[in-house]
Amino acid sequence: MQFPKLTPLQSRFAASLLASAFLLLLYYTLANPTFAYAADVDSILPSDHNHPIIFDIDDLLTDSIDHEALDDPYEPEFSLFDRSIAGRAAAGVTALANNDAQQMNIEIGDIQYYVFTKEELASNLSAATPGLPSAVERRDEKVELRMDLKKRQSDDDDDDDVTIPGGSRTLYITLNTCLQPSSNSSGFSTIPPQLELYVSNSADLQKPGPDADSSKQTVVNVTGGYALYTLDADDDVYIGLAAPNTTIFSGIWNYQLAGSIDSPFASLDSATNLYFVDSDSQTALLVTNDTTQAEENSTVYQEWMNMTPPFSMFASNQNDSSILGVQNSYCGLKNYAQIFATVGDNVAGEVSMTNRGLGNKPKEQFYIKSLNRSSTYYGFLAMTGNSTASGNGIVGGGGKVWQAMNFTTKEGMLYYLTLAPAPTFQY
């Protein structure tokens, strides 16, 4: 198809028309703001109110800090953030929850940090689990006084959210050593050093330890792998756990650290509550103290006699020193004791309830097997958890240990040494 030929006059007119149209289009483009922004938009528009302006919360917090005082802990001075949310805990500090033990390894010379926050202190007390028919434990007097105060206050408080006068709360901090380093020399029986426990309730000392200000922290005595520290607090409580330096031992410590506002997560009783009856060359018979002084026809008496035996027993030959250093720790004895007699396990021993002996009161008996002749043993009464439940989230879930007693096996065999059968009651 051929296009028509234009005369010179027509060609000049067409060119002028196209030029005018282009100029009009250029003018319209420059005059219209929408097209101008579409052509070139700046990445930062502080003066353009047609676009939303977004600020980074980290930038806002950074701008509010005095950069000449960065060595001091940051404390926000505006009411938007509470201290419990911003700037509260130092880096490298692990938060503890109520009745939730942290089980960790720690290397020789290391230190680890924890905090029990004021939110956990102010939380509701945990629900109690079913207990024993009657109390048999004898607590530390100071702990007993605190527990008695909480019980009396709880009787007057419908929601069991108990605090002591002054708005503070009682906190029980417990430490159990589960594993400890071994000697570098064969035959070297020195006991490994104990872990070191430090506690601070000062916001100025969030990492207590061996090199920290002694006036702002408490050094808690750790004995036989166990420690209990009780304090009243209304703010964050900081904990440092240090493993001492040593060159004659190698390996790690393993521990359980717990905080509770209810009662000690793990317990140690200074009484033995375990008595030797008799032995032969391979077995021994031991019993607990009477669990109740109730009369035989009483409900409590019958409940004790018919319940699943609540106690366990650890035993170790005194020639074996591996338990020394963890002898007050339930998890330590569980790892190092040679014998663990508990209900349902008849290999190490047999356990049952009985009323044999003077007064015919309920007690638990242990028939321990696989012993060596003419040998002296340590015997420990113990309780898994609180006797009815154990583990994290349970009040007293870390178990209980009584002080050690001693018993010795005989040279020969006694064929009459057996468990006494438990009587059957009719309800």
Automatic annotation (TrEMBL):
It comes from the Eukaryota. GO terms for biological process: calcium ion import across plasma membrane. It holds the Pfam family Mid1. GO terms for molecular function: calcium channel activity. This is Putative calcium channel subunit mid1. It comes from Phaeomoniella chlamydospora.
